[in-house]
Amino acid sequence: LDSICDCNAGSDLDIDFSGGMKADCIFKAGSFGDVFALVSTGEAMEAASNGARPTLPGIFERRNRTSLNVRLKGKKELKSKKARAPQGSCSGHLDIAMDAAVQFDPRVTIDVNVMGKTTVEVSGTVRVSVDAL
Predict the structure, then answer these.
(1) pLDDT at 40 over 90
(2) What is the CA radius of gyration of the chain?
(3) What are the b/e assignments for 94-111, b being 16+ CB within 10 Å?
(4) pTM, two decimal places
(5) Is 76 exposed, middle or buried (0-12, 13-18, 19+ CB in 10 A)?
(6) Are 61 and 39 in contact (CB under 8 A)?
(7) Which DSSP symbol is given to 45?
């Protein structure tokens, strides 16, 4: 299980010869657990076209999964990364900087008793870290 499931995050395999088997897996393989991040660059926001809203300033990144006991991202100084909102997006002047990261950790639990009854449960944890100015 170690190549697919994160044992440090709580994945487990329990075999009880009189009761059955239970496998609990928090996935660390595949792109489900990847971290998706917005990183401020300080570049000016571009005005939206065709009535669309302007996008947040910065670049989007896809990073490797981090274990549940590790921070998603470190704190950054954002003052130098502020970007001016495009003309007409608000009544005053708006400068914004944002660093954010989000990760979904899917969990699958399979329980099989000695009679063959199988129960499958799918759940997950969503972690988000945001710094904004």
Answers:
(1) no
(2) 22
(3) eebbbbbbebbbebbbeb
(4) 0.63
(5) middle
(6) yes
(7) P
